[in-house]
Amino acid sequence: MKDLSLYIHIPFCERKCNYCDFVSFPKQFKEAEYYINNLITELSIYKEELQDYKIKTIFIGGGTPSAIDAEYINRILDYIYNNYNTHDEMEISIELNPGTIDKEKLIIYKESGINRVSLGLQTLDNNILKKLGRIHSAEDFYESYKLLKEVGFENVNVDLIFDLPDQTVDMGMKDIKTLVDLGVKHISYYSLIIEPGTLMHKWYQENKLNLLDEDSERKLYHSVKEYLKDRGYIHYEISNFASNGYQCNHNMAYWMIKPYLGLGLSSHSNLCGKRFSNTSNLNEYIEKLSRGVLPVQEDESIDKETEIAEFCIFGLRLIKGIDKNQFKNRFNLDINDLYRDAIKKHKESGLLMEDDNFIRLSDKGLDLANLVEVDFLP
Looking at residue 258, what is its pLDDT? Predict the structure, then answer.
């Protein structure tokens, strides 16, 4: 059987953050049961098509999955267990926000088979949290993390964003040091992206955001990288750091272009040589499923040239780089025959490094990854 990863989108949240452009519905919890029923209908439609697959990882994201009743999450997972082939040791992750969980909810998650938690912190500075539109405080985070440990969740990721409004290098380092002192096993560390259509984008256009200059932003990233390395964390992807054995298998499936299926509103899939996405319109999602029709909005076939390019570009996000043997086994080609000029160019400029098994970005290349990636496009 072939391995498969599932992504399940829960679009409900307490409040839309000022930087968020994901499909989500603040305070519309009355729609939750209807939505979950339809999501299970979507699962039932895929059941026959996926009988030759075995689910290896599940990621429940949003929105804020922890904002809805935990029994809804239990229902989804129970349906999967009873109707799909699953690995005995699946990695099952759920996104949580501080302030939206209690001990009872976490116990239900644990009993449902969830064994990995991703906690959306972003920063421990309460003033910046307010600017971001987050509903929680630093104190809420500490309480949530304490509850997770009490219930027995060891595999905990904490999401942080850097280059935030009014954040200094010292403030960013303080966030990291606190998480290390707490013993957090996995840290995702993303630079702020100001997305069009968000309130933060409006502020940016109005010159109302005090952000780090480029040199300071890079100084913070490199300081964090070195600090975590010195304390035993493995830097395994540009924005991700983990204690040994706590790397995220679900995200690795994305980065290695393995089959994955997205369920729920606006989710994306890569399966059977096709890439496709669900509608982001809730009414259309429900209407199609009521007729037994999948709510797919867009789809495209992935030709070999595109698959090769994506394998390389996502491979370069991994710190170990592109596995040359995997490339040859997958495509029956030698990567140096195909990209000789690009590899030579970026090795000479100090952005790429190569050994017998891997082609990887150098430290300098991690800062200029886009310049390298463009030369691997079809």
Answer: 96
